[in-house]
Design brief:
By secondary structure, the chain is of the alpha+beta class. It has two domains: about 60 residues; about 100 residues, PH-domain like, CATH 2.30.29. About 45% of the residues lie in helices and about 20% in strands. It is built from five helices and eight strands. The strands form two sheets. It has a four-stranded antiparallel beta sheet with strand order 1-2-3-4. It has a four-stranded mixed beta sheet with strand order 7-6-5-8, sandwiched between helices. The radius of gyration is 23 Å and the shape is elongated.
């Protein structure tokens, strides 16, 4: 008996960020604040604390509170989808404000660096020149190129999708845009 062919969803797919980074940030901030409060307020068994130890405790509490507040502020600003797969293209708000058309993507590869998988998109140079890449995308592109990723990298860290599912969805849409050409999903050599 043959297995039924895999059918991938069509239409617009919006992928939002996961709640896990916010939870981890909240726990890390609370832990740092608590440890700093222990250093600042708890009596030392060796006698009086030095001014430096007191300063470190109070400064740690302030830094933890400010870092937690900034983390929650950034998390509240990033409401809505991070990655949008439409019938016409891919839009990753971490890369650029514009949509990258499926027909302008020549190949798709998987790049595995330090146990983090990313999709590497080889985009038509004319289309890529028209994208207003974010500052982080421009800076990481330079570093990624040095480690073997020749193209725009789309990672799934912090998103509500796994790498394999995103790779299948993108490969399907690129193949449909290229009228039957199936893009390669390979691992580029570092």
């Amino acid at each position: 008996m043959e297995a039924a062919p895999l059918t991938l969803p069509a239409g617009r797919i919006e992928i939002e960020s996961s709640a896990m980074p916010v939870l981890i940030g909240a726990l890390a901030g609370a832990l740092m604040f608590g440890l700093s409060a222990i250093v600042a307020f708890r009596d030392s068994p060796d006698g009086p604390k030095s001014n430096f130890v007191l300063f470190a405790g109070y400064a740690g509490m302030v830094v933890a509170a400010l870092a937690s507040a900034r983390h929650f502020w950034r998390a509240s600003r990033s409401q809505g989808p991070i990655l949008i797969l439409s019938e016409t293209g891919l839009r990753d708000t971490r890369l650029a404000a514009q949509e990258i058309p499926w027909a302008g993507i020549y190949s798709l590869a998987t790049w595995d660096f330090q146990r983090q998988k990313s999709l590497v998109l080889s985009v038509d140079p004319d289309i890529e020149a028209g994208l207003s890449l974010t500052r982080m995308a421009r800076l990481s592109r330079i570093v990624n190129k040095r480690y073997g990723a020749q193209g725009l990298c789309v990672g799934v860290a912090g998103l509500r999708i796994d790498h394999e599912s995103l790779a299948m969805l993108c490969a399907d849409r690129i193949a449909r845009a290229h009228a039957g050409e199936i893009p390669s999903i390979a691992n580029p050599a570092p």
